[in-house]
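User: Can you write out an input/output pair for a complex, sequences first and structure second?

Assistant: Here is one pair. Inputs:
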Amino acid sequence: MRLLVIEDDAVLGNAICDHYRKLGHGIDHVVRGDEANSILRHQNYDLIILDLNLPEMSGSRILQNLRIRKDNTPVLILTARAQIEDCINLLDLGADDYLTKPFDFGELDARCRALLRRYQGNAQTALMFGRLAIDFNACSVSLDGEEIQFKRREYRLLEIFSKHLGRVLSKEELINHLYGFDEFPSENAIETYVARVRKK
Amino acid sequence: MVNTRTTDYWSQFIVDYSGGGDFFIANAYGKSAAQLSYDRVLFGSALQVVENIKLINNIIVVDLPVSAFQGLSLSPDDRAFYQVIADNQHLTGYEDLSSAFRPKKRIRRVDGPYEAEYFDGVYSAEKVRFIKLSRKLIEGELQVGVVVYLAQTLQSRNEMAHDISVKALQLVSVIFTIALSVCYVFIWFIVRPIRRLNTVLSERAPTDLTPIDTDAPKEISELLRTINHFMMQLQNTLDRLKHFTSETAHQVRTPLAGILAQSQNALMENDKPKRHSQITQVIDSCESLSRTVDQLLNQALLAHRFKSKALEKVWLGALIKEVSRDQVLTALQQKVELAYIGPNDDCQIVGDTVALKKMLQNIIENAIKYSPKQGVVEITLIIEKNREINDIRPRYGHS
């Protein structure tokens, strides 16, 4: 999945990026509000993790602009305020969910997974394709009930395919979903991954 | 309600005491009016007696006319006594009357060539009003001093006094009642909008600090404006507090989230250099958070001191130098140079030493924090007429 993290605190931003990169997602980290706003005009993401207090442009403004452009990308807000009215305001602005700082990665992961599932019109946590079964919570794949070992990137690739059933995806689309701006994958790498997934 | 009770108490007080006062004043007025008119009659009679004493051929002739006592007979229930004395010799009338004339407090009234003295005394076991009138009779070289004593019992006089008092009291009561009713009506008119205001205020939600919008007469509109102004200030304070709280939450919770997230990462990281970098980030974050908490606590301390501490005289220059010296080491650790560039003359201001120290420390710390490495922070005290300015300038670039 392709994620955008908009967070002005360097340590927190880096931590989130490290975490999701390790899980095999493509991730971009932006510090300034206006920068995030212009990136979102040109690039589609599967999920946006948004802080509210940002330099140059506030998080709520970015969210507003996103929704004005009819962009329905799920947005998870990181907020320091835990008052009910603040949360209501955020949800009214178009946020899909929020998390109060500080948070546990387990909770962040679960909320992100839930948002992605809902966005892709599939609220189930597991999928079956004939003999193949994918458990999105445990990130595991099994064939005829027997678990197959997948590398992280390979699993994410399978995940992307499973979320776009009945569609042919171009290499470029796959790259867009799998990698951040900082990574420079070749189309050959994608072919290799696809070949490995097919083999398994 | 306490206010209503106080008002009731006061109105009761006014009615009681002004009523008592009225009675007293009416009584005194009646007494003095009766005294004055009856004294006139007494004087008229005494005058007629004294005028009818003559010296004819060196013999004193007393010829008392009936008319002399006619005035006194206007009060039918009273008795009158008289005595005429010439050169201390009893001439006519009641012989012991003059001996009853023992004035404690006499009132003298001079009327023409006569000098009259009045006083209240007792004669034949009855309270009487005395008059003493003197005259000198002269014929040739002969001079005779004649004194007339006249006394009258007080019954009619007292009746008249009572009569006047009662009438005056009746009149005063009527006027008093009318005035009181008018006052009550006026007070009711004035208090009515206050009651309405009270109702509006008591029916409000405790969080509703919007201006009160009720039509008020001129007398109350000033009060209403003050209440609205006060509520606006309260709202501003609450807004500021809310903003401050959310800002504080952000400043504390964000690095905390970073620390938690990055330490979770470090726990799972197998790559040693990567883990090292993550732990370094955690430590940096901790330090930054510690500074933030220090600043917030300082702010709370200052707010507390501003409310509770009396101000004292402080040498500002000396204080700036002291704070700068304390910060030199911290500055050097961050590769920033700190320079106090004078002037040497100092100035004294009125303030709280600890609060000023904390504020100066905060300014200098911030200047150091936002200076580039190898930069110089210059601290100057500019003393202007009637005001002092502490100027702290980070000078960018190499020293």
